[in-house]
Specification:
The chain folds into two domains: about 190 residues, Clam (outer membrane lipoprotein receptor (LolB), chain A); about 100 residues, Phosphorylase Kinase, domain 1 (2-Layer Sandwich). The chain is about 15% helix and about 45% strand. It is built from three helices and 21 strands. The radius of gyration is 23 Å and the shape is globular.
Length: about 325
């Protein structure tokens, strides 16, 4: 009896001690250190797994594979429902395979991750517009993960919840959160393989495309850095101009002025173009992406980004020529 009691007590203390050590280790690590680990993992990790992506109330299952070979990134995303669309990226080129139409659309790519293009990076600034904190540890896709919370200080930006793999820092689950706590978008791995080497064959098309028709997509838009006399008179706090370009969009007759604003995490693109036809103000949204268009004299102004609708509208209606 005494041996049983001692054994039980010992096990209890040991379990408590391990839990305490785990929590203390997490608490001792700065949240920004986890962002550094995440940024490195997103750039360098090769993996294969199943992702559930939710956006605008719709969910879809994806099979994803990513491999890095001599610095060249290859990715494959296969939609598990519908027409079986498959997207295969190699470096700065992407092939969209449409099995039902027996066609392949070939387009240039901007070298961003297909899944994680909107994650904060190690250069994001926290303290003024957002709070960054470690919340707890829990399991995601069968792996221990650390939950990192990014909470905005006002209604002009969204919050983020990111579950990072305890071992590698890889984002196993990401959520975009509204000001009311509602879930706007989610990317969540149901299963993932981060340990094994990924075979080049895993990046091959899942169907034979020997007799498919290849189509060339839009050429890269021509961008030129410029100075502009357009300014935003009522920019939400923390946002600043990152770049200003004139862009010749494929199929457009005249160039468009593109001003990119950012607060270090959220970004808003403002497109300004001359128009001949009077248009009414309008807004649109998909998941966490919001856009607002308004006409000022002969110019159509559109603000778009993964920001609340109020932010897109505030910026669009406040654009003025100096």
């Amino acid at each position: 009896m005494n041996k049983t009691n001692i054994s039980s007590a010992t096990l209890y203390l040991l379990a408590s001690g391990l839990l305490f050590c785990s929590q203390s280790a997490t608490a001792a690590e700065a949240p920004t250190d986890w962002l550094d680990r995440m940024s490195f993992a997103v750039q360098k990790a090769s993996y294969a797994g199943t992702v559930i992506r939710t956006k605008g109330g719709d969910a879809e299952a994806l099979k994803v594979v990513r491999r890095i070979d001599d610095g060249v990134i290859s990715e494959k995303v296969t939609i598990q429902e519908g027409n079986g669309l498959e997207i295969i990226r190699t470096g700065d080129e992407v092939h969209c395979i449409l099995p039902d139409k027996k066609s392949v659309l070939v387009e240039p790519w901007n070298n961003q991750s297909i899944l994680f293009s909107t994650l904060p990076d190690r250069h994001a600034q926290f303290g003024h517009e957002y709070d960054l904190s470690l919340v707890r540890e829990e399991r995601v896709a069968g792996r221990m993960a650390v939950l990192l919370a990014i909470r905005p200080h006002d209604e002009f930006r969204f919050g983020h919840r990111i579950w990072l793999d305890r071992k590698t820092g890889f984002p196993l689950r990401t959520e975009l959160v509204g000001s009311d706590g509602s879930l706007l978008e989610q990317v969540k791995f149901a299963d993932i393989n981060l340990e094994s080497n990924i075979s080049p064959d895993a990046l091959s098309p899942s169907v034979s495309i020997e007799n498919f028709t290849f189509h060339s997509g839009n050429a890269k838009r021509v961008e030129v850095d410029v100075e502009t006399d357009w300014v935003c008179n009522d920019l939400p706090s923390g946002f600043r101009v990152i770049s200003t370009k004139n862009e010749q969009l494929p199929g457009a007759d005249v160039p468009v002025t593109h001003i990119l604003y950012s607060d270090g995490l959220a970004t808003v693109s403002v497109f300004i173009a001359k128009v001949q036809i009077k248009k009414t103000a309008r807004r649109s949204n998909v998941g966490g992406s919001n856009a607002y268009s308004v006409q000022r004299n002969e110019y159509q102004i559109t603000a778009v980004g993964e920001v609340p609708a109020a932010t897109a509208r505030k910026i669009a209606v406040s654009m003025r020529k100096q």
